[in-house]
Amino acid sequence: MAKLLLNHEDIERKITDQLEKLRMRPFSDKDKTVASEIAECVSRIHSHDLSQSKLPIYDVRWVMGLVRENKSCGYKGDILSALESMGKLERYSYDGPIEIQKDKFMAWDIADSNWQSEYKSGHAGSYAWDMAAIMNHANDPSFSDAFLDGYVRRGGQKPTLAALHSNLFYVQVAEAAIGDDFEKVMRTTKEITEQDMFKTELIPYETIVRLKLVGF
Question: Which of 20, 98, 177, 196 gives a 20 to 30 Å CA spacing to 92?
Answer without folding.
Answer: 177
